[in-house]
Amino acid sequence: MKLPRTVTSSALSRRTLLAGLAAVPALTAVPVTAQTPAAKAAAEQAQAALKDAKGTKLVLLGTGAGPGGQGPERTRKMTSHVMLSNGAAYVLDCGVGVIDQYARTGIPFSALRSIFITHHHADHNIEFGPLLTIGWINGMHLDVRAFGPPPLKQMTEDFLRAYKTTVDFWADDLKMKPLVTVDVKEVSAAGPVMQDDNVKVSAIIVEHPPVKPALAYRFDFKDRSIAFSGDTAPFEGVAKMARGADILVHEAMYMPGIEAYIRREIAKGRPIKFEDLMAHMKADHTPVEDVGRIAQEAGVKTLVLSHLIPAVDTISDETWRAPAEKYFKGEIIVGKDLMVV
Questions:
Q1: Phi, psi at residue 91, to the nearest 5°?
Q2: Residue 209 neighbours by CB under 8 Å, 6+ apart
Q3: H-helix or E-strand containing 169?
Q4: Distance between CA atoms of 264 and 268, rounded to whole angstroms?
Q5: Which residues face 185 on adjacent strands?
């Protein structure tokens, strides 16, 4: 049977398609998933806030905690952030969604200078390797650096080895220099992490058993300081690290919400025990009341509640904010995906 003329006479070769793809702007080459009206509006607001921005900006790419509870009702992406300063982008954590969310900000991948990982849980590192690969094909410079706990170097090498064939196909088709290696610095103790012409970064070890080490980071830019708690039980070291910072981004757990969420998950057949998961939550995460206390002790100007536990939309901003307000008297922001701070 003769094929339609539209297929036989105008079909493009794979090489032609790839060459055409390479010729379009970097952001359009990224397969951004379908957006709801709210997500589209958030992206447009983020792009407007970042356009010709003066000074350092923080974008909350993903504000939800944990890899559990995935489904159409979950609108918050997993944990990730990007800081933009003087045209350079710094990504902290790479949960599911970081690639699409980064693209939605309008920040070019050529701006990506460094990636930082707090700890090796999937909701913080699962798209680290994919971000490197998709970033590279969209113009990320090969001198990008990565920082995080051991064994980040081995993990990076293993990922690049696994995807060497994929990278080589693209490099050959598009005549690009392949992504062969990434400069990785492992961080296993408190202290300075890196410094460049925009920022000085330091880290501490936090309490997130059994994950060791788990890190919190502080970024001191020329115009503002931003501290991130990472995942941690209530820990005075975070207050000390964040002392005097402009912004503290701290994980937050609403206890009545997480208890109700776990019971719903069990009722739906999830193979977990209430006592076991609650014991984990209490040992590894910070109730929002304690977040307010830590922020007040640190003397920060703004507290951003993020990595929200549970990552559901049925808890109002006021419900999140009220327990922290008992202790913290500064500005409190309940984080939302693609919010610019």
A1: -100, 135
A2: 283, 284
A3: helix 164-174
A4: 6
A5: 147
Q: How far is the C-alpha of 88 from the C-alpha of 83, rounded, in Å?
A: 8
Q: What is the CA radius of gyration of the chain?
A: 21
Contact 300, 247 (CB under 8 A): yes
Q: What pTM value is reported for the model? A: 0.88
CB-based burial of residue 243 (10 Å sphere; 0-12 exposed, 13-18 middle, 19+ buried)? middle
CA–CA distances in Å: residue 199 to residues 86, 98, 219, 302, 303: 10, 22, 6, 19, 21
Q: Where are the alpha helices (DSSP H) in 51-151?
A: 98-105, 122-125, 128-137
Structure tokens at 227: 């501290």
Sign of CA dihedral 145, 149, 151, 156: negative
Q: Does residue 249 contact residue 226 with C-beta atoms inside 8 Å?
A: yes
| Calpha distance 339→134 (Å, rounded) | 23
Query: Which tens digit of pLDDT belongs to each residue from 184-213?
Result: 999 999 999 999 999 999 999 999 999 999
Q: How many residues does this entry show for the chain?
A: 341
Cα within 13 Å of Cα(284), Cβ side: 20
Q: What do you get for the CA distance between the two ends of the chain, in Å?
A: 60
Structure tokens at 316: 């109002």
pLDDT digits (tens, 9 = 90+) for 147-190: 999 999 999 999 999 999 999 999 999 999 999 999 999 999 99
Asked if residue 98 lies in contact with residue 80, where contact means CB atoms within 8 angstroms, the answer is yes
197, 54 in Cβ contact below 8 A? no
